[in-house]
Each structure stands twice: as C-alpha cells, then as structure tokens.
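quick one before i forget lol
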Amino acid sequence: MTSSTKLTISKSGQFYLPRASVDPPESLCKMIFPDLDVWHDRLTAKQANPNNNDEMEVTVAAKAFFELLFMLRKTIIQDAVFMIEKFPTHPLWQNSLFSLEFFTDYRERMLIVAQEDNDPVNALLQRCVPILEDKIKCMHHDLSTRLDTQSASQEKIIDYITRLVTGQASISLNISSCDTPISLPGGSGEDQGRINITTTAIPQQSEPNSLSGYNSMDHSQTFHGNINSNVVPCYRMSRGIVSVNDLWREWTEGLCGGHAIKDLEKRWGTRWRKEKKFFNRRRLIINEIERYASQNNITTRTAVDIAERRRSQKGYLLHSLSKNINKIFEIESSADPNQMLE
C-alpha cells in the first residue's frame, strides 16, 4: 500500500501523501456508501431507526464510526488512481464509477500532482529561507556592532594599562587603616591611621633614540608613613612592557617610581624573587646588552637603543629575544654601533 500510494516518510511520526493534497469531487464520494449521508442525518437528528423504531443513541463511538466511513470513501477514490496503475486488469475497475468523466478528470489531475514535488515541508522551507536569511543578517550586524564596541573598549583599557606599566600614566592611592593606627612622624591627629602614597609617572621619551630625552626624564615617588625597610618587598616584574627600552628602565630605575630590579638584587639578593624563571629570561637580555656595550666600547644606553631598533624592525617579542639572545645584535656584529642609530 505504501508503494502504491507513493507514501513519503521523512521522520518517525511524520509523512506526506501526494494523493491527500487533491480531494475528489463530492459527487464521486457519495457514490461510495450512498446511504451514509442519510444515516448520518438521522443520527444527528436523533430520529428513530426505521427498521425497529428504536431511537438512535448519539455516542462518541457512533460519531467516530461515521467520521471513519466519510474518510474511507474519499480515500478509496484517491487510492484507486494509483491502484489502477498498478493492477489495471483487476475486476474492481469494471464498476461504472471508475468510467465516469468526473473520475477520469480527477485521475489525470492526481497523476500530475503525484509527479511534482509538492511536499509541504519543501514549500515551507522555500518560504522560510528568505526570512531566516534576513534574520541572520540582522543578528550578524547587531553582533558585529557589539563586538566592535567591546573591542574599542578593550583597546582603551589595554592602552591605559600599557601606559601605566611603562610609566606614561600616573596612579594615586589612598590607603586608610582603621584597625591599626599608624603613627606618622610630626603628623596631626587627622593624619593618624592613614598612609597616602602618591606616584608620579615617568614621562615617555619623545625620541626613543635620544639620550638627552632619557636623561631629562622626571620621576619621583613620595611616601608618607612609617615604612619598615627590613621587610622584603613583594614585587612582580611587568608583563605589559614590550620594548627593550622599557625593560631596561624597569631594571635600572623602576617603572612608575617602583622598585628597580638592580636595587632589589643588590639589597635582597634572591629573597625578593617569586618568579625565578621569568626573572632569568629577562636577565639574559640585560646581560647581553651590557656585554655588547662593553665589547664595542659604547654606553649601555646606546646599546639599548640599538637593541630596541633591531627588535622593532623584526617584530620580535621580549620572550623571543630571551630564548634567542643572538638575535638582539646579530646584524650589528660587523657594523659600527655608532652608525646604527642614524
């Protein structure tokens, strides 16, 4: 029956019958179970049964049975179109119903529809795809706008953090201690229990290769309070710096008035180090700069500028230089270092 009626099942519980899309003429349907309409009217009107004069009881089962018969007589005509194609010599088709002009016209229309792809699922997709396309485009545009806004905000934050750790931005901290008052030398009552730390940033050089700009930089750090010099400082080397100039500044002077690495090494040795692996990588670069300056009889500042120019031209990261020390000055080994800044 499935093959004869061209039943298409796309998913469990879902199917599509081409013959169900074309209803047969009502006149043909009434020729099958011709008394069905009469008995249905009697049931609806609750008339007595003409055979025994008993009143017909309208029940759910009776209504469902009539609905089944109405469906079957339409289905018989619909399926007959395909059954005739499969079994053309069957005696059932000798019935006068199947030779009527109404049935012949209906059969031709049904065969045409069955050959076409009228699956409602495909038709629904054809209507929905343009709508879905527009919806996806709107969602993509909205998402792109939000991402661009977020990206711009992140760039501002990253830029500020970079300027902060490289000494181009300033930060001011006010730390209040209520539980343990701190006695400040020569301070008034209002000053007790409060530590004010004001840090003035180190201005960035206007010319990276200018020695005078580097020497004229203003950097200061003011502490008000009783600072215990016997406590090992807790300092974490900056991950935000990207240039050799900034690394050298952190090592020799400190960033934003903070600790200089060489001072920490001189005062505390290895006790202040909490990240030995990272420290050793950065120290390799510093040692190479000092070696190159000594070997070529130039200042360390000049060596720093040469190294930074080399790094910038090649796009190297500090991490990459620490793993490949020979890359820092490899092309300057046979050249005059004083000409590298021209």
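fyi Confidence is low (pLDDT under 50) at residues 1-5, 9-13, 176-228.
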